[in-house]
Design a protein that fits this description.
With about 325 residues, the protein is an alpha/beta fold. Helix content is about 40%, strand content about 15%. The chain is built from 12 helices and 10 strands. The chain has helices at about 30-40, 60-65, 95-110, 130-145, 155-170, 190-200, 235-245, 250-255, 255-260, 265-275, 290-295, 305-315; strands spanning about 5, 10-15, 15-20, 45-50, 75-80, 115-120, 145-150, 175, 200-205, 280-285. The chain has an 8-stranded parallel β-barrel, surrounded by 5 helices. It is globular and about 50 Å long. It binds NADPH dihydro-nicotinamide-adenine-dinucleotide phosphate (NDP). NADPH dihydro-nicotinamide-adenine-dinucleotide phosphate binds next to strand 10 and helix 11.
Length: about 325
């Protein structure tokens, strides 16, 4: 496993990071979730990403339980705040000081740790003054409950405003967590250059487009049993956003000869592709079974030559969202 620095900080994270959205506490049973976490540790993954809202807090509990007994100093644990969890009260949402502090304490309790390595704003809150949000994050950093601060799906402008305030308050935003894959490249024109300038890395979610870029969804064929596309607890709706786009599964199948030429699986090629971007510190990969992690982690050893990067663009053409 290779490690990369997260933004302009001294924190090193595994370039393949394990995330538990839609799986822990939902699609997969707890023993499979634990087996996935242990498989991730065995292959050298040290960085784990979750959120208070995943499976309505249960994902944090499952991850905390699965990591019990591990040496805390050898792990990087990331979580997020924004959406309501549990019973909905009028203050149980957004990035007010009240919600941030209450959510942070709940996350630490569920994860069974005194601090998280990275605490992230899951979305931007247009209703709360940004000063209030950044002040609350700064206090968590000073209290040692969050070692570093990140954001997720913020625009370039929002990131710049947040970084300016954070710097004035004596801390920094070091990461941005956006969706990024061969099929979804909206961060390239603005978010990436802004973050490069401000010393912020990307930790990118759905690098396999939720499994679609593994090539397992074939045109006209039944959906593979047990896949996210058959998960009626929530996953299916998300995968359909890709599968329902005209011509997309056909174009993805056309990537297979390129993966064959590289001697790797399509899933590995999708992960290696995001890691070629210098501003990406980690591919945030999900898994519904341990074998997927063992396969996916090998992407860390792959470099895709420039000529094949161009062929990937030619094959995908206008199915890419930019
Ligand atoms: P991926 O694109 O990595 O999709 C993971 C899913 O793909 C797995 O659960 C599995 O689903 C399938 N898969 C994985 N490996 C293989 C393989 N080798 N062959 C075939 N299928 C495979 O990412 P996710 O969408 O899961 O997102 C990853 C993480 O990103 C999340 O856990 C979360 O931490 C973060 N995230 C953050 C968001 C944000 O707003 N900040 C939003 C969404 C995610 P199956 O087997 O069921 O088909």
């Amino acid at each position: 496993m290779k490690f990369r620095y997260l933004g302009n900080s001294g924190l090193k994270i595994s370039e393949i990071t394990y995330g538990n959205w839609l799986t822990h506490g939902s699609q997969v049973e707890n023993d499979t979730a634990t087996a996935c976490v242990h498989a991730a540790l065995d292959v050298g993954i040290t960085t784990f990403d979750t959120a208070d809202v995943y499976a309505n807090t249960v994902a944090e509990e499952v991850l905390g339980e699965a990591l019990k007994g591990q040496r805390r100093e050898s792990l990087e644990i990331f979580t997020k705040v924004y959406w309501p969890t549990g019973p909905k009260g009028h203050n149980d949402c957004g990035l007010s000081r009240k919600h941030i502090m209450e959510s942070a304490h709940g996350s630490l309790r569920r994860l069974g740790t005194d601090y998280v390595d990275l605490y992230q704003a899951h979305r931007f809150d247009v209703e709360t003054p940004l000063e209030e949000t950044m002040q609350a994050f700064g206090d968590l950093v000073r209290q040692g409950k969050a070692l570093y601060i990140g954001v997720s799906e913020w625009t370039a402008e929002q990131i710049r405003a947040g970084q300016e305030l954070a710097t004035q308050m004596g801390f920094r935003i070091i990461s941005s967590q956006p969706q990024y894959s061969m099929l979804w490249r909206v961060i390239e024109p603005e978010v990436v250059p802004t973050c490069q300038e401000l010393g912020i890395s990307q930790i990118v979610w759905s690098p396999m487009a939720q499994g679609v870029l593994s090539g397992k969804y074939k045109p006209g064929a039944p959906l593979p049993a047990g896949s996210r596309a058959t998960d009626e607890k929530g996953g299916a709706d998300f995968v359909r956003r890709f599968l329902d786009r005209e011509g997309l599964v056909e174009r993805v199948q056309d990537l297979r000869p390129i993966a064959d030429e590289l001697g790797i699986s399509m899933a590995q090629m999708a992960i290696a592709w995001v890691l070629q971007n210098d501003n990406v510190a980690a591919a945030l990969v999900g898994a519904s079974r341990p074998e997927q992690i063992i396969e996916n982690v090998k992407a860390s050893d792959v470099t895709i030559p420039a000529e094949l990067m161009t062929r990937i663009d030619e094959v995908l053409g206008d199915v890419v969202v930019r």
